[in-house]
Amino acid sequence: MRCERRAGIAAIVVFVLAGIWVGGVDLAAQQIDMSQVRSNDELRRGVAAFYSGYFNESILAFQKAIQYKADNSRAHFWLGRAYYYAGFDDAALGEWKFLASHGAGSPYLDNLINTITWRRGLGAETSSGTRYVISGQVQNKIDNTTLFSRPASVVPRADGGYFVTSFATQTVDVFNVNGARTEVLRGGLEGFDGPYDVVQAPDGNIFVSEFYGDRIALCDPRGNKIKTFGGPSAAAGSLLGPEYMAMDDKGFLYVSSWGSGTVSKFDSTGNFILSFGQPQSGYAGLKEPTGVAIMQGRVYVADAGTNEIDVFDESGNYIDTIATALKSPPEDISVYSPGVLLVADTTQILLVNADQDTVATLSDLEGRGTKITSAAVGANGSVIACDFNSSTLYILSNITDLYTALFVQIERVDASEFPTVTAEVTVQNRDGVPIVGLDASNFRVTEGGLPVASDPKLVFAGFRQTRPNVMLLADRSGAMQNYLSQMRDAAGGLYDALGGSGLQVITSGKSPVVETSSGASRQAVVQAAAGNGTYGPAWQFDLGVRLAGSELMKLRGKRAMVFVTQGKLGQDAFKNYGIEELAQYLKNNEVSFSVVLVDQDKPSAELEYLARSTGGKIYYLYSPPGVAKVVSDIRARKDGTYILQFQSNSQSNFGRDYIPLEVSLYVMRRTGRAEAGYYGPQQF
């Protein structure tokens, strides 16, 4: 069959060249626009290079496509995309604005321009402040089935969902990002006795405060009790009506005991440490402690008996009282942002700036609140609140975000198995915060506006990934020769913290080199980091960053670069690429840049800037807990990457035709859209 098709095509070509009339039309007389043909060929080459992560090569191809045909709008669009991912935001905006001004704009292009402009700081100047409105609501009943009743606390989960303690039904319910209940935790055979609050430990186990049981239940991730502690006795560590809890970064648990008017501190296994909040000289003591929050090494305790928030150190020593202007008894408190507390204040939700001691209204819940007992910031930036009296969960969004589309991008398309196609998609809010917890039901895929042949399957979700992809970029300055043992310690520590895989080494010498693959042994990694390459004044920091980034582009999931260095960059560190271009390159490709210092001298300001702007951090090699902290922080970063697989309905014309691709997103009341395209595999 294939031979017959080829023979037929060959015959048609011969007829055209011979000037044969077909259907009354002289095919030889038709004019073929060779400029358009060459432009389309360059477009195809550029798209292939782009999806392979070779952005500089794709830029050259798209520029040639435009040289052949200046009005090739697809080439302008793709050139903007290539500029953006290569780190040249200004050039990208220039291409897209050119399209918009020449009648080739679209709502998607407008959102692209507006979002990137906002992120560059131009839009934030006109922001009118923080105001949250109701963007979603979860009812406690479906038909005649009660899902929850009298919700006391809502606690966000890292996967975008949240726990809800159902005080009246004696359960802890798990909801996903779409507001659907996915699991019911019942406390095993013994059950819960007045579940009030939940804290999830780093190991996945959960603590549940039992108000009527006067105790804390330590449970496995499925809600089965492992042990209980506390109790109503007069002994140390006793609890009377425990309500709210908080856990610090050392694993200590703080519990407010409403009946005894104190806060008790326990270790991660339930052993009592101390209690505080009793009256003392110069301090009247807690009256009715409710919410507890840990922020910047201090313990904040809401007091419904005084309408204030008392501040203690982690040893329970009283420091100060803030938020004395509260009008209603505060319930739950949680961290909204560094230095700012979120307060559930009966009928509204407040922001308390702990440093400036100011109070502002985040949301009045449009007058619907009757008894708001808990509010917290979810993994995707929305605020989730529960109303105890009306048995309702509210999802609140910043009013400016609610009417702004989510930032959805098609990062990569693989059509090698056409008509089976996979598309890698990233989802963020306007500020660049990844949106996690989505499933296939949130996405709709079309080609040229027409539905594909099958509903998309979600074959990968970054928020579920536990192993990040890490590139160790090794400093090859002359000064680094004095720190070879430290380099070996850093490389070995990173390798161990990653569990023996997922670490690659790149040396940033005069010509940066990829030294190891992700499957290299510990010995090979340590040797490459300290021994490979040439140390000296001609090392190339910027080229090393670009090479490490291009290698990370080939990998799916969380991407991180760790620069092990003595901390000082030479005068030629940005000879080929400016610091802004490097920062934009890393940010636009969702690569975090962290620095491990081999001595305690202050690093170059440029390193601090790159780390801060990409969500990375600066670490000292020998500070506890060492480089294990680097890896744990990388793992904790959110990843809004999703890979969708679907069956195409389009004809590829043997890989010659451009197939437009659109991905639409729907989550609660928020939407987003991405547009790109691809070519099928070339066939002859």
Helix fraction by DSSP (H/I, runs of at least 4): 10-25%
Describe the strand arrangement of the main beta sheet, using strand numbers.
32-31-41-42-29-30-40-33
How many structural domains are formed by the residues? 4
Number of E-state strands: 42
Q: What is the highest CATH level, the class of the largest domain?
A: Mainly Beta
- Structural class from helices and strands? alpha+beta
Estimate the global geometry from the Cα principal axes: globular
**What Rg, in angstroms, do the CA atoms define?**
29 Å
Tell me about the largest β-sheet.
Answer: 8 strands, mixed
Can you describe this structure in just a few lines?
It contains 13 helices and 42 strands.
Structure description:
- By secondary structure, this protein is an alpha+beta fold.
- It folds into four domains: 34-124, Tetratricopeptide repeat domain (Serine Threonine Protein Phosphatase 5, Tetratricopeptide repeat), CATH 1.25.40; 132-402, Neuraminidase (6 Propeller); 406-462 and 640-679, Sandwich (Immunoglobulin-like), CATH 2.60.40; 469-636, Rossmann fold.
- 23% of the residues lie in helices and 34% in strands.
- The chain has 13 helices and 42 strands.
- Strand 19 and strand 20 form a beta hairpin.
- Mean pLDDT is 91; it is low at 1-29 and 122-128.
